[in-house]
Amino acid sequence: MMQPNRMLIVSVFVVASCGLAYELIMAALASYLLGDSILQFSSIIGAYLFAMGIGAHLTRYIRDEDALDRFIQIEMLVGLIGGLSALALFVIFGFAATPFRTVLYALVLIVGTIVGMEIPLVMRVLHQQQAEFKDMVARVLTFDYLGALAVSLLFPLLLAPYLGMARSALLFGLLNAAVAVLTARIFKAQLPRYHSLQARGGVVLLLLATAFAFANLVTHKAEEHYFGDPIVYRTHTPYQQLVLTRWHEDTRLYINGNLQFSSTDEARYHEALVLPAMEAVPQAKKVLILGGGDGLAAREVLKYPQVESVTLVDLDGEMTRLFTESAALAALNQHALSHPKMQVVNADAAQWLAGETQTQFDVIIIDLPDPSNFSLGKLYSVPMYRLAARRLAAGGRMAVQATSPYYAPHAYWSIVETLKTAGFHTWPYHVYVPSFGEWGYVLAGHDTAFRLPENFAVPTRYLNADTAAAMFRFPPDMPRPEVEPNHLNTQILVQYFEQDWRSNNR
After folding, report:
1. How far apart, in whole angstroms, are the C-alpha atoms of residue 330 and residue 505?
2. Confidence (pLDDT) at 490
3. Looking at CB atoms within 10 Å, which of 52, 85, 88, 274 has the fewest?
4. Residue 269's pLDDT is what?
5. Cα–Cα distance between 354 and 377 in angstroms, integer?
6. How would DSSP label each residue in 176-217?
7. Which pLDDT score, from 0 to 100, does residue 1 have?
8. With 70 as the cut, is the pLDDT of residue 38 above it?
9. pLDDT digits (tens, 9 = 90+) for 278-320
């Protein structure tokens, strides 16, 4: 059997991994479900570390002779609460979204407090085992930091994509409970209540194992309730959560809980995004699409026979794979992603533009998710648009998805100002998409020549001369506010976006 001191040092590695895992999982869930990843990660981590400090302070009230017993009980408690935390948050968000934020921060404080008690108690137990102080501190902190490193690498690369948030939390809960059971067994001679501790440990392990077995079913039901339609596919990629729902003929894609398209009206969105730019450059041969991993914008581009090549750059390989290989989804984009003229590149759009030094494109379509966090906000910044300007050929046109000028007017017009600051001439426009409401775009180019499309050279479901002309007129209830362009050092666009949507959802 493992020596007692060695067992405690190994347990430090495990509990450090588990403690950081709960922190990462709750922060990731908050950013998925509440948006604004920087704010959510910052506030969750800050609250968690504060709670750990409280937990460490509370250990001063535990007597030395009770330290081992309390450590074992704390491992069971943190395993149970931390392990079930993500599953509980999914259920609450799916069935009663209102108290989600309150429960989230309550769990952060509770789990953080309990986790903060672990290392001080381990060190006290080791001290009682006659461990030399300097060696004890060095070993404990070494394994503490190693455990944190291990989970920080495993979580984004393996656990989140393959197990998901709920089962990842339950896995670490099982590890905490296993530490409690093994520690009790090794130190049973020093534990008057050994049999009681083992029985409780067994119950916790059984509860967590049962929850692990049914976690996917529970989260599936919660998500179905939240999205309102049956879920036909869902996955956590290293970059985002993808959910597909289907009700009769309506297929919908959600990214991190936000609707990306509905098959019943996506033609309005994608025709408005792509066709004005394509009609403005009748001889366009080379087209670049940034984002648009569903292939629906590419479908509209490929309607034009003069197009010789389309390069699509989307960060998430799972997204492009899904819309290439799924027969139902590929039918929506008319197999655009496997078209011989298509080249699909899975890369960060800004980094790809910075590295691409030669190709000039006649048309650039930017179909990226809304700037709801800073990692997306950088893709709507002055430096990003200056990179795009270098790739746009003389006489070319660029079209940008730019959120809603009705629900998020400050964000929309900030994107217009950002394009102007980057050196573009701009023509803002909008269209009504039933699934989204009023939606906005910006057409941009190096020169000032612009003519409203009077007809379209390709088949359309929505656009014609009348609807195209209406797109470029803004009614009185969509006035243009005074806004600033979006620079990387301020990311004011993300603030505009959050404030606009918050004020329109009260």
Report:
1. 34
2. 83
3. 88
4. 96
5. 17
6. HHHHHHHHHHHTGGG-TTHHHHHHHHHHHHHHHHHHHHHHHH
7. 45
8. no
9. 999 999 999 999 999 999 999 999 999 999 999 999 999 999 9
Q: Which two tokens stand for residue 283?
A: 């001889």
End-to-end CA distance of the chain: 60
What's residue 430's pLDDT?
A: 97
Question: In the block, which residue shows the tokens 């590295």?
Answer: 355
Cα–Cα distance, 438 to 306 (Å, whole number): 32
pLDDT for 132 equals 67
Answer yes or no: pTM beyond 0.85: no
Is the pLDDT at 412 greater than 80? The verdict is yes
Radius of gyration for the chain, computed over Cα atoms and rounded to the nearest angstrom: 27
pLDDT of 131 higher than 70: no
* β pairing state of 437-445 and 258-262: unpaired
CB atoms within 10 A of CB 473: 9
Work out the number of other CB atoms within 10 angstroms of the CB of residue 253.
Answer: 24
Of 256, 259, 255, which is closest to residue 228 (Cα–Cα)? 259
**Quick count: other Cβ atoms within 10 Å of Cβ 334?**
15
Which residues make Cβ contacts (< 8 Å) with residue 469, sequence separation at least 6?
452
Assign 424 to helix, strand or coil.
Answer: coil
Judged by DSSP in three states, 260 sits in: strand
* Structure token pair of residue 162: 């393959």
Contact (CB, 8 A) for 298 and 290: no
Query: Is 370 considered catalytic here?
Result: no
How do 250-255 and 425-433 pair as beta strands?
unpaired
CB 303 within 8 A of CB 326: no
Please report the beta strands in 386-490, taking only residues with DSSP state E, as ranges in sequence order.
392-401, 425-433, 437-445
Ordered domains of the chain (ranges, CATH): 4-220 (1.20.1250), 265-503 (3.40.50.150)
* C-alpha distance from residue 433 to each of 290, 368, 437, 492 (Å): 21, 17, 5, 27
What is the number of other CB atoms lying within 10 angstroms of the CB of residue 25?
Answer: 26
**Tokens coding 67:** 């330290």
The length of the chain is: 506
Return the bridge partners of 345, or none: 313
Angle at the Cα of 338 from the Cα atoms of 335 and 340, rounded to 5 degrees: 115
SS3 of the chain: helix, strand, coil, percent, to 5? 60, 15, 25
Residues 57-78: pLDDT tens digits? 999 999 988 999 999 999 999 9
The catalytic position among 144, 367, 370, 500 is 367
